[in-house]
Amino acid sequence: MTAFIDLTNSSHTDEIDMTEVDEVRNCLLKPWGFKELDQDLLRNIAETCLIALHKVEWNEHNAQRFNNKVVTQDQVIFQPSLPPVPRPYRSWPEAYIMIFGGLQDCEYEPKNSKFKYVVEHTYQPDSVDPINPKVVFEIKGVIPTLADAKKYRSVAEQNGIYIIFILQEKDIICPWSRPRKDGTRMTLEEWMGKEKFEYCYQGEEDAFRKTDKYKKLVATFGT
């Protein structure tokens, strides 16, 4: 497997220097404290974390976690032990995309972009386009349940917003999907195509936002 973020010219290492992490831990745990850090060091830590996450067998991990798949002790898939995610972000993919990736000019979880949907829940997108707040972003590793999948459709329809997914990995199986006759199961990409959601992959969001299709969407959606 290869990472979707091009790390060819990066300064990342295969291992994280935990001494360096301990020195900056307080800044990582403090909301927006990462801005006080040396950005090259932060990028190196973030890229190393992404590589570690990319090595996880996510389909098997998700089956064990969300489908209660029974396995032997030595078959259990664990996520890697990583440094604390820079607050206020909730994952290293979120942090990397918002700090160093293609959403650097987008506000993270803007308070004025919370959209209500049925059953009186409030939907908080990961980010929104700075020009058209009706175009919102979701950074996802997996959509764990059918209820979660239906949520996005309801939110989009009831609030007149356009959700674009940024996927952490390719070909992740929907844990709630049933096997087809040929044994295959629906992937996130297939579900999004069926529901007419746009998506791109981690590391591609900047190029995606430069396409004519995206620019037209921002200029015309909701007007």
Automatic annotation (TrEMBL):
Protein name: Restriction endonuclease domain-containing protein
Lineage: Bacteria, Pseudomonadati, Pseudomonadota, Gammaproteobacteria, Pseudomonadales
